[in-house]
Amino acid sequence: MDKPLFTRWKCRLQSPRKRSHGLGQARTTCRPSLLDIVTRHVSALEEQMQFHRVIGKLINLEQQFVLEAYEKENIARREKLYSEIKEDLKKKIAAVSEDATNMAKKHEATVQRLKQSSKQVHRSFEYVMSKTQEVRNMTDFGKEQLRQLIETVSRIVGTSLEMAYSANDD
To answer: What is the pTM of this model?
Structure first.
């Protein structure tokens, strides 16, 4: 009987083992695959085909399990990353919120100081205005007194001159 087309050998390259007594060299080992074993031990081609289909389905099932496990691992990794990002974002939002609160408090304190300064400036302005008015009043009063004094001095000078002319005429 001829060998069927499905005869395959699985070969793999084994890495050299570290040995203290020499250089390690890679070596190739070949083992028969499941298909090779079925081909050697089952003589009927129809049975071989059934075994090959079953082996193919088992391999597909194994691949499906591996893919599902990979997908679960990938989902878990993404969920973990999402949780980490979410926590980091919460911390950053809390920090920004705290900074904003502190800035608002500082702003409020600054506004209060400005209000106090504004009130002080207003009081100082009112004081200066009242003193200015007092100075104006005193100036007006001083002007009036000066005018009266000049008038009095003028009368005295006029009277003195009249007396001097009358004394000279006599």
So the answer is: 0.43
Cα 147 to Cα 44: distance, rounded to the nearest angstrom = 149
In whole angstroms, give the CA distance from residue 156 to residue 147: 14
Give the Cα separation of 69 and 53 in Å (integer): 24
One-letter amino acid at 117 equals S
Rg (CA), the chain: 58
| Secondary structure class of 27 (helix, strand, coil) | strand
d(CA 30, CA 14): 10
Give the Å distances, CA to CA, from 150 to 52, 136, 137: 141, 20, 20
Q: Is 28 exposed, middle or buried (0-12, 13-18, 19+ CB in 10 A)?
A: exposed
Q: Which residue has the tokens 């009112």?
A: 126
Q: What is the DSSP letter of 22?
A: S
Q: Count the neighbouring beta carbons within 10 Å of the beta carbon of residue 35.
A: 19
Cα separation, 93 vs 9, whole angstroms: 60
Neighbouring CB atoms inside 10 A of 52's CB total: 17
pLDDT single digits (tens) 40-75: 888 888 888 898 899 889 999 999 999 999 999 999
